[in-house]
């Protein structure tokens, strides 16, 4: 099957072909396409024209200018492909294993854990200095056959043990875990999906999140789902669960929006991300791919702009690199063609990422920079703020480093830890010292911050976390 022409889904003359196209992809991708096609919005064709000295030239570097990541789902079996690996290492600063950390891959028989391929993905990410998203601890699909045959308490215990073991194996190395994947039903119910896991009791999801937090306190813990690309019954069901979790102290940090899209984007895509962010969780685009068509580049740009407009949208992951790597065979839904060439969609994403920074280079001559009610730090400087997630005996600190009126090239954040506090893990920075007066230096991929932009790093520790505002030195 070739590329879908733009407007194909709306053609009244081709109902048979529409069905055959939809039937040719797996079931839930089909419903994603139907949902998005039904409310497709023609996005403005214009893309901000950049071309400033600050516009970065790769997806990861462009996203990093505003403290975000741009990632790809990758497969261990493709890492030997030179074109694939060249694009991966050049363009992306986050990786997600497409299949290698799933239950069937990591615990093929009960209690026997195999991490060979999961570790290959992890090591690839580490070698690139990239974030690693863990995917997925519990899901009704891709369960090993032994788990499929369990139920009740035996399944609950096996599932929680699985979460504990896998999160412990990868402790301190995962940026964010999809703790639970696709637990809500499609359609208008807004209810949980029936599954063997759901039949162990409605609290299985929160039990999984608590187990994951206990095993790896530094990882952000996400709920991840599809057909949640606008305000609809399914996304509202998830919204209500997240609100309930936050009110009861169930540890959840982020919601993943898979965004397997057709040829349109719901008009309330950004508003939907924002309403989740307003609950106090990060949001991430976790499995983005968009059906080929004349609108593909615009839909990709629209998703990018939406994430850039939501301060708690921390990054975007595309579900594969080249069209030929995609699970959506024949739909050409990715940013690189089969030969590894950049597509128009790639350029639209890069421009939208770069539009998140300044549109003119910083200058010390006229005209003077506009004044704002809360002035940023002086030119060439940076500022740092800490947000703490504490519990008895430990904490995770997230530090945001913000550039002033000029871009920053390299930064060092210094702070003082209270007596009895010791750092046990650091990500996206290199620390000097782990008790008392400590400092953190940028790593290779987050030293450049555009004027007014920010990046984030984090650390975890024992005792209580820092309370005073840190200092930041640029350069
Ligand atoms: O279905 C698309 C994605 C929907 N959200 C969750 C994701 O985890 C899911 O990823 C896909 C992978 O992209 C596929 O690669 O999950 C599929 C399984 O539901 C993956 O397909 C499986 C095939 O079904 C297996 O036959 C195959 O052995 O990939 C396996 C490894 O190539």
Can you give keywords for this protein?
GH10_AS, four-stranded antiparallel β-sheet, eight-stranded parallel beta barrel, alpha/beta, 475 residues, TIM Barrel, EC 3.2.1.8, Immunoglobulin-like, 19 strands, 29% helix, polysaccharide binding
Task: Walk me through the structure.
The protein has 475 residues and is of the alpha/beta class. The protein starts with 14 loop residues before the first helix and ends with a strand. It contains 13 helices and 19 strands. 29% of the residues lie in helices and 23% in strands. It folds into two domains: 297 residues, Glycosidases (TIM Barrel); 93 residues, Immunoglobulin-like (Sandwich), CATH 2.60.40.290. It has an eight-stranded parallel β-barrel with strand order 1-2-3-4-5-6-8-9, surrounded by five helices. It binds ligand G2I. Ligand G2I binds next to loops.
Topology:
Elements: H1 15-23, H2 27-38, H3 59-64, E1 69-74, H4 82-91, E2 94-97, H5 103-106, H6 116-128, E3 131-139, H7 145-148, H8 152-169, E4 176-181, H9 204-215, E5 220-225, H10 233-248, E6 254-257, E7 260-261, H11 269-277, E8 282-290, H12 296-309, E9 313-318, H13 344-354, E10 382-391, E11 394-403, E12 408-409, E13 411-416, E14 422-427, E15 430-432, E16 437-441, E17 448-449, E18 454-462, E19 471-474
Parallel strand pairs: 1-2, 1-9, 2-3, 3-4, 4-5, 5-6, 6-8, 7-8, 8-9
Antiparallel strand pairs: 10-11, 11-18, 12-17, 13-16, 13-19, 14-18, 15-16
Bound molecules: ligand G2I.
The site of ligand G2I has 10 residues, from loops.
